[in-house]
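Researcher: Please predict.
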Amino acid sequence: MVITKAFRLCILFFQFIEDSPYLSTMSLISQLGAIANLWAGITVVLIVEIIEFLYKLLFQGVETVQNRETPAAREKVPLDRY
């Protein structure tokens, strides 16, 4: 059986690969808590913005429509002219 020199070099040079976790358990829990806190904060801000939008749309929009004047009322022009 003939063993080439390259094959012998491949057998002689090997390396040990050690498997280790990238994050520790405490670090993983900390990261998950930070993400959950971020999502909770965004959710609260979004809900407040939606409530503010609906308030402005319903209450201030109704006031604007009720207080709006027609062009004839602004110019003090009789309505029979139109």
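Model: Residues 55 and 61 are 9 Å apart (CA to CA).
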